[in-house]
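Protocol step 4 of 6: structure prediction from sequence.
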Amino acid sequence: MRKQVGILVAACLYYSGLVKLARRLMQRSDERLIILNYHRATGGNLRRHLLYLRSHYRVLHLEEALQELYATRDPSKQRRDRRTPLVLTFDDGYVDNYTGGFALARELQVPITIFLIPGYIESGDRFWWLEGQHLAQQARAREVTLAGSTYCLTRSEERAKLAQYIDTHLWSVTSVAERETFLTTLRELLDVPTDGVEDKVGDGERSLSWAEVREMDKSGVVSFGAHTMHHPILAHLTDTAEIRREVSECREVLQQRLHHPVRAFAYPVGRTRHIGEAAILAVQEAGYDWAVTTMSGINTRQSDPYQLHRVLGDVSRHWLVMAAEVSGVWSWFSPLWKNHLFNREETQ
């Protein structure tokens, strides 16, 4: 219901001309840069997104766009293309960034930037945020007690509760070692297979391989940034030395593999409460020129280069919703229809 209402509202905004007006107003204002934040490249209609964005925005690699944003300008020189610059970024490096995203980007000649986690590329392990569901589904134990709660795993609702408990715990760990120890212990308690088909990371869930990364890098269509070595939530880490290692080692490994500088960093999860001052300092000390968050907004020349904002990009969203959000007009009206819809549902 909510999704359908959202599409209807977005269609009204688009076909009324308000989206077009918002785009024109943005072009006339001071320099702006939109950075879209995707993760997956399949499961929706990325082609439709890219075709729309290519038509109405000047799509650039992240590095090129940021150099342009912060460059000293000659007021007497005007760009021929007045469209607002826009960057497409993909976090984590799922394999569908290659099978889906790269294939489309190359076909349509739309540049994209992918933030990589080298630890997962090298290990081939399942991303930690997918482990809760996997472990709960694959558990062969009939019952398990964790943190004072007992889960009867013969019932699907109990498996769902267990998955939620695992997810909550993984989000709160204070070191990568603690996370890995917790997962190892769980596999033993739950009697989860550690080899064979059941434990294999699915083709849609695995990280990119180095061979895929190198192929994309050579194409010139894809650029890469760093996303830590193992994707911890940096603000939760208690050891500042580990924060520095996660940030700096990631850059070193990527530069060794790609044979060129890696200048941009993306904070895992990326909200203010997930970053922390120690992480920002570590990014600066590691030699990065820029860092992106997941805080919503459009960037200007006054934006902090180490706390750049992004706009949510979700391949499963209808292209009309994406068009309204990227233009900025979505934020003018979404609180009104959201509140109206939620209030109606609460009274039903």
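Step 5 (inspection) to follow. The chain is about 50% helix and 15% strand.
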